[in-house]
Specification:
By secondary structure, the protein is of the alpha/beta class. It has helices at about 1-20, 25-35, 50-55, 70-80, 115-120, 140-150, 165-170, 195-200, 205-210, 225-230, 250-255, 275-285, 300-310, 330-340, 365-380, 395-405, 415-425, 450-470, and strands at about 40-45, 60-65, 85, 100-105, 125-135, 175-185, 215-220, 235-240, 260-270, 290-295, 315-320, 345-350, 390-395, 430-435. It has 2 domains: about 1-220, Vaccinia Virus protein VP39 (Rossmann fold), CATH 3.40.50.150; about 225-470, Spore Coat Polysaccharide Biosynthesis Protein SpsA, Chain A (Alpha-Beta Complex). The chain has 18 helices and 14 strands. Helix 15 packs parallel to helix 18 and helix 16 crosses helix 17 (about 415-425).
Length: about 475
Amino acid sequence: MNRKVNYFDKLAASRVKQRKAKGYYWNDITRYCDYFIHEELSVLEIGCGTGELLHDIKAKRKVGIDFSEGMIAQAKQQFPELELKVMAAENLQFDEKFDLIILSNLIGYLDDIQDVFTQLHKVCHPHTKIIITYYNFLWEPVLKFGEMIGYKTKTPAQNWLSLSEINSLLALSGFQTYRNSRRMIFPVYIPLLSELFNNVLAKFPLFRILSINNFTFAKPAQEKKTEEYKKQYSVSVIIPARNESGNIENAILRLPAMGKHTEIIFVESNSTDDTWQQIQQLQQKYSTTHDIKIVQVQEAGKSKAVRKGFEIAAGEILMILDADLTVPPEDLPKFYDAIASGKGDFINGSRLVYQMDKKAMRTINLVGNKFFSMAFTWLLDQRFKDTLCGTKVIFKTDYERLVLNRKFFGDFDPFGDFDLLFGAHKLNLCIVELPIHYKERTYGTTNISRFRHGLILLRMCFFAARKIKFK
């Protein structure tokens, strides 16, 4: 045991020296983790060292543990406001659960990574998120050369782990990986040169493979039984409607009951036909069989209608259903099952998997959708097939957090799709795509101007790239 303590104390000392000497490298890790952290979260860092990362992130509650008594003593002296404990990662002893757990450059030194990952369940609630940082083993020869010439502090040999192996270990330990990310291809600071390599070149596919830092995002994999979640949550289905008079009754009749209660909210906006009159009449007609709320908004844009519907919704789960019914209402229970069972925190419909009706989507729209799916895959470090599907589902509590953090991106999206996706990414939610069928419209015409609105979407992508990718 004494030999193991001595080993970790030496390791701890070397990590302290590295942090001081290579502030640029460590600061980038801290900055990236902090991007996904919000003031209301409780954070636990395992292997906190001398506490710099924990000190620099924003969170209402910050707790750190480390095996080394010497490092914890130094951290307490430097950051007395932090709650720090001497504790082994292999034997977590807490009476509370945390919203976020960080393991930064720790797993390379663990004797049994799966054992430590399994221990994390002790401090996880169903919506806890985990961020794991680890260096890319392609850099091993470079790092060893740096140690040989004295530029880098010598460290003990580490485990050889690829991203896929980390993901597999998490899966074996009962966790679901929902994002992998890479950063930094030039780990020393030289003005202009470092910015060029790390803030520009490292963001593109061919260069990203060479990044030194790998990030893995995970959440507890939940195994809820069907009977546990089928009636667990109430649901609000928001139906923005503009010039959709002929679809209103079908939307009501075809919408299945979900959860313990289903509420329908029609939001009408600037129709030139009798959509509002139809909504009013049908609310009265089905008042004894359906819980229907109705409201009008004067502002242009689908996003204003969606936000108004979300604002007055009473359900715990919020769903969007386009009033053109090109996404069948009968598919919504799949979305309920996905979010209620814990498979994801934000469920995004994907129309580009199953065969769609012949006239459901024009060729130019299909090309545009594929372009934006590739753009989002690159922007958010997660595979996306269809970003513009109108059917999106989120817990109301998460949407309320999204609203509070909307100032980061600003009120820039007239459609609402990008606002919700970017917001969910910033909140570090697990975004899951769900394939749905896409049908031809049977009443009315589309409210989308393909070229004008396409240019708006493109500008939003460039804006988001500055806020997400090139920050």
